[in-house]
Design brief:
Pfam families: DUF525. This protein has strands spanning 7-11, 14-22, 34-44, 50-61, 66-72, 80-81, 86-95, 99-109, 115-126. By secondary structure, it is mostly beta strands.
Length: 133
């Protein structure tokens, strides 16, 4: 199934696309836990090769509680993107509220070792009940 990328940010020639889906089958509503999966596509539209080094997430729940997540790479990888290349990965987020938001940035390195930040677009997390029919 192809991802429908709903949110896009472009910084310094790097495009970050996000598709997010609520996962009712993986949520534990009776325990107050809601789970989302997000698919990220990174696209290098620059003329040079870059490598993703770190990630920084700001996750906010419906009560305004903020969880900052910093770490090396994404899902255990530090993808290197040559001009025109893309990298896709999938990860998830669990909240104790039915709604929230995510946003952040990645730090990439250039071939000379210098770093630059790339925005991850703001996107909402909303638990949508399956429609009956």
């Amino acid at each position: 199934m192809a991802a429908l990328f709903q949110h896009v940010a472009i910084t310094a020639g790097i495009t970050v696309r996000v598709a997010v889906n609520f996962m009712p089958d993986q949520s534990r509503v009776e325990a107050g836990r809601w789970f989302w999966v997000y698919h990220i596509r990174l696209e290098n539209h620059r003329d040079d090769t870059v490598q993703l080094r770190t990630r920084h997430w700001r996750i906010t729940d419906a009560h305004g509680a903020i969880n900052m997540v910093d770490g090396e790479g994404v899902v255990g990888e530090t993808p290197r993107l040559e001009p025109g290349q893309t990298h896709d990965y999938v990860s998830g987020c669990e909240l104790t509220t039915t709604t929230g938001t995510m946003e952040g940035y990645y730090s990439f390195s250039r071939e000379d070792g210098s770093l630059f930040d790339v925005a991850i677009p703001f996107f909402p997390l909303a638990a949508v009940a399956p429609t009956e029919g």
